[in-house]
Structure prediction request, 97 residues.
Amino acid sequence: MNINITGQNIDISAEMKNHINKEIQKMQQYFDNFTSANVTINEEKLNYKANMTVQVPGNTLRASSNATDIRTSIDQLFNKIYQQVKKHKEKLLDKHR
Prediction:
């Protein structure tokens, strides 16, 4: 799986990259069929905007979040993408029944 973490108008620290990688690993434990994940974090004045695109076979999952704190923005982003991954997995399981 390819994981790209980029920052626009911000340098992402090693601690943030580790936090993002841990969250992606948690996601992989639940659903391990990812082909790639792209995480982009933008700093705009007093807000941080986090975007994520995850490629799974047959589908693309996207989520974004805005917050005044970078960690909050990332956590909200992963909450949204977890919901999409869960929904995608349930659809796959329903097709096989």
About this structure: The longest strand covers residues 47-56. Strands lie at 2-8, 36-44, 47-56, 59-67. The first helix runs from residue 14 to 30. The chain has two helices and four strands.
